[in-house]
Amino acid sequence: MEINGHIVDELLDEISQRLDFSAVAADLERMNVAREKLNYLQQQYVMQQIFTGKRQPSSATVSFLNLNKKLQSLQDNSSEESSFEEEGVEEIEETVCNELQDDAWLGFFKGFKILSEDEELCLSENKQCIDISDYDAKPLECLLRAGVRCFMFDLFKGTGFENQKNILRLRESELSISRESGFPVMATLFGVLSPRLQFTGVLEPADAVIPLEKGHALTLTYKREYSIHSSATMVFVNARFLIDDCKVNDFILIGPTIQVKIEAIRNCELHCKVMEPGLLRSRLPVRFPGRCNRISVSLEELEDITFAREVGVQVLISHTPGNRQYFEELSKTLSLLNCENVRLGTRIVINEVKEEDEDDLDWIAESYDVFLFELGMTQRPDECRDREIHDVSTDILELSAGVVNFIKKVYDKKKPIILNASLIAERRLFVHPSCLNEIFFYPDRYLFRSGDTENSFYFLFLQNAYFKQLTSIQLSMKPFCDTSHVGSDTLARSCAAAAENHNAQAFVVYSVVPDMSINISHFRPPAPIIYVTSIKSTSDYISMYHNIILLYFPSRDTEISHFERIYRSLLYGLAYLKCRRIVSKDKKVMLVYSSEEDTKFPDRYTIFKFPATNFAEKLEGSLKC
């Protein structure tokens, strides 16, 4: 019996891909184990240096240095470069030389650090969320070193293997920066699900516009390797379930003008011919024949949810909020796939919400946990048809009253808001004065993609200028209504106000649960909020909130007193601030903690003036007062 060569090639490709999946999954697992060991040894090492000031290597120091060598070999083995050992030795020698140079130069320029040529300048790093879908490892390390702790990836783009490699690069970069700084580095990563409706894939380049003439032949495929490599002849469409119901001579609509007719169906690919010409762009809507079965959940969504579960991503963003039935079906799917703990968010184009859809905004604000707001350019179909590549229009950004109330409601509910402000950064949208709060104050983070450095600088400078004015106005607004059950909102507001009055450089919050950090973040203080906790899973979502930095403090001592646990945790946070040069002599830090062991929520805050030396003893005295 003869076997089709095409089928054999597909089987070999699938087997190879599965093997690659397993190899990357094993690397991720080893990376997680190594991070856990490194975090614990780092904590021991820091505490030893604070309390004893020993210069002789202790057992903890030796273990710490040995683990660093093992982690270096682990990263070298997972790399795809050829000469592993030689590069590892050169990297270690270069790192040692750079450290010696830094120490020498810091003697001449106190408080400054000389950056290497490839070091990336980062502005308002704690307000940024970076899309890593097409990032390489080097910029990721620069961003993490600068302080960026929130990242996103689009599951519509690329194959599962490519996304898995991107996540591995991020975790490797976290581990590398953690080894350099001596403190754990943990970033929040969330994914955007593929849309349930059908869209074309991303062209090469992404902003390409390809004219399709009548009679042109093209193929529609569901294979994800074409999702970021679509062309005039091969176009990806997320329509795996719909392709089976298509027939020869059916018509399919692409975008506002293009119509194609199915000439043949082979290997689950639709070979078509253009009947009505038009311009092909990335992510155009696709309309299949009415007979095709519209199921509740698409295959692409199931694949995305399963992938997120396997790689440990605990926040997923739906492409559209849909209706109540859509939300219930998506929630049921998560439950069936054992993803009940996943935080489900949604994406909304806020300046394109129609008046008839504003009635749904109330239940959307109640149901979803995270919100990704995007901005669109409202254009008529004839404008889209005739637009040239170099024709860039501008417009004034205005929001309807219903959308303004919706954003304010989401903000009041303390749910993270991430805004994709690329159109503002590109100077294609200019914000109307009536919606400054909705653009420059309420969002926790701002989403930027690769190659947007110049535009992001413009927007972040603009946002920083407005933010300083809006923060003082919002904080002084009266009356204030405490909606919490234990008065935590009042405590957080008092803490934020005291920090502004005393010009505090940072907050250090120790708590079992992150609620107080989120409450303080709600009032948008400009100072970073260092949340010290022993709950590692909090890193899955906490860095989506404004200015919160997770500092993982693993504690294996179960017999120490409540005061000792608070003291060590806050001390670890202060050591982090000093190491990162966030605070210096005579600068003030807000310490937030719980005074009683049975209290889950912090109920006390104090202003700590950072001394030049012996800050451990000064901290103990402050806590006992």
TrEMBL record:
<protein>
    <recommendedName>
        <fullName>Pyruvate kinase barrel domain-containing protein</fullName>
    </recommendedName>
</protein>
<dbReference type="InterPro" id="IPR036918">
    <property type="entry name" value="Pyrv_Knase_C_sf"/>
</dbReference>
<dbReference type="InterPro" id="IPR015793">
    <property type="entry name" value="Pyrv_Knase_brl"/>
</dbReference>
<dbReference type="GO" id="GO:0030955">
    <property type="term" value="F:potassium ion binding"/>
</dbReference>
<dbReference type="InterPro" id="IPR015795">
    <property type="entry name" value="Pyrv_Knase_C"/>
</dbReference>
<dbReference type="Pfam" id="PF02887">
    <property type="entry name" value="PK_C"/>
</dbReference>
<dbReference type="Pfam" id="PF00224">
    <property type="entry name" value="PK"/>
</dbReference>
<dbReference type="GO" id="GO:0004743">
    <property type="term" value="F:pyruvate kinase activity"/>
</dbReference>
<feature type="domain" description="Pyruvate kinase C-terminal">
    <location>
        <begin position="489"/>
        <end position="593"/>
    </location>
</feature>
<keyword id="KW-0808">Transferase</keyword>
<feature type="domain" description="Pyruvate kinase barrel">
    <location>
        <begin position="137"/>
        <end position="317"/>
    </location>
</feature>
<keyword id="KW-0479">Metal-binding</keyword>
<dbReference type="InterPro" id="IPR015806">
    <property type="entry name" value="Pyrv_Knase_insert_dom_sf"/>
</dbReference>
<dbReference type="InterPro" id="IPR001697">
    <property type="entry name" value="Pyr_Knase"/>
</dbReference>
<dbReference type="GO" id="GO:0000287">
    <property type="term" value="F:magnesium ion binding"/>
</dbReference>
<dbReference type="InterPro" id="IPR011037">
    <property type="entry name" value="Pyrv_Knase-like_insert_dom_sf"/>
</dbReference>
